[in-house]
Structure formats: C-alpha cells, structure tokens
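One such given next:

>
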Amino acid sequence: MEICPIKAIVAVILSALVHIQIVHSRIGSQSEHLHQALIRKSSVMLEPYINQLNNLKIVLASSSPRRSQLLKSIGLKFEVIPSDFDESSVPVSKFKNYGDFVSELAYKKAMEVSDLLREENHEADLIIGADTIVTINDMVLGKPKDEEEAKEFLSKLSGNTHSVFTGVAILSKGRNSRFSNQTEVTFSKLTPEVISAYVKTGEPLDKAGAYGIQGKGGSLIEKVSGDPFNVVGFPLSAFCTHLIQDVLPLPTGN
C-alpha cells in the first residue's frame, strides 16, 4: 500500500518535532544549571548596591519579556516603558563595527524614553536600553517577517557559526554608560524537516535570527562561545560590571 505523500510529510515533521523535544529536554537541565550559576554571580556583584538601586526609579526601555525576566532574576525592581524608536533610522553602514551599531541603538532607545518622561514632567534615576542583532557573513538577521523568512534564516545558520551582538545603554542623572557584548554561536546541521518543525512551534517569529536559545531553539545549537545571556538579549554580567564601574554609586538625594 502506498503512503499518501501528505501523510508522509506530516509524519516526518512530527518526528522532527519529537526529536526537538527530546534534545531540548536533555540540554535544558544542563543549560539551566549554567544559567543559575551566572545569575548567582551577577546577584553577588550587585549585592552591595541593591538596596540603593531598589530605592530608585528604574525604567527598562524594552518590551522584551526575556530582558525583564533576567533583570528581575538579580533582584532589580523597575518599570517597563517600551521605546518606540525607529531602528531603521540608524543605518548600520555608518558604523565601523556591529558593536558600535547596537550600542548606539540601545542609547537611542533609552534617550527616546527619557525624552518621553521629560515631556510628561516625570523623571527616572536610571533608564536601561538594549538592542540585539544576529550577524552571519556580514548580513544582519533581524526578526523574521513570516515563517518563510524564518526558514531562510535558519537555513543560513544551519551548520555554521554566527555572531550575536547586544548593545546596552544605562542613563542616569549624573553618569551614563554604554557598551556591547559579542557571543559566537555554532548551529548543528539542520535538516529541512527539523527547520520546518521548529518554525511551526512559533518560537522563531519574534526573535532576532529566528531562534530562542532559552527555548526549543537551544536544541539546535552545538556550541556557544561567550555569555549565553547575551544571546537571550541581555548580558547580565557585563551589565553589572558597567553599572558598578561607570554609574554607581549615585549621588545621595537622587
């Protein structure tokens, strides 16, 4: 008896989905231990300052739930006011490197929220902006516009190493800081069936590069060189270092 081609395709995709779930569950526990260790390190770094910080009005100029989750994990209290800054107004060709590009975007986003607060006669003691891009072969992969583009992005990443750049800006009444962090990520070789199955989960559609390292996309990754939280969208350790060195302690009375 011949198998209907459509049923055969569905069977292959379902098999790929099961494979992703199994690999994700195996990798998940290992990455969770690493993530918890990195969070503990960042929490310890901020411990001498956490009481002062949590008496300040801190604003995160990003709607990313992943960035919010990471900042909450180290004990910070803040308000989320997403920036509406138009990223396309800053051409990447103006910059010598991608690090400068993302740190400028982060700064522009933080400044946009700062200006908004000022117009409403409000102030914040600290405003945090961030932006993340994925690059491969001198191409920038943003968030895919649809499933087909997500498949194209994942096909480019398959079996190759790409770079993830996150820029962070910290604005305060006295001192500012901005920096970028780079992480190298190597993907396993992905079959078209695995790519289709992963895209069908919906996870890639709101993420730069069309994957989420903290989700099922982690099962597609062979190697990470650098801070894995940078790939999630916020380099916690570097943020704590720059906050302490460049901004803290804030003047009393702020």
Summary: The radius of gyration is 20 Å.
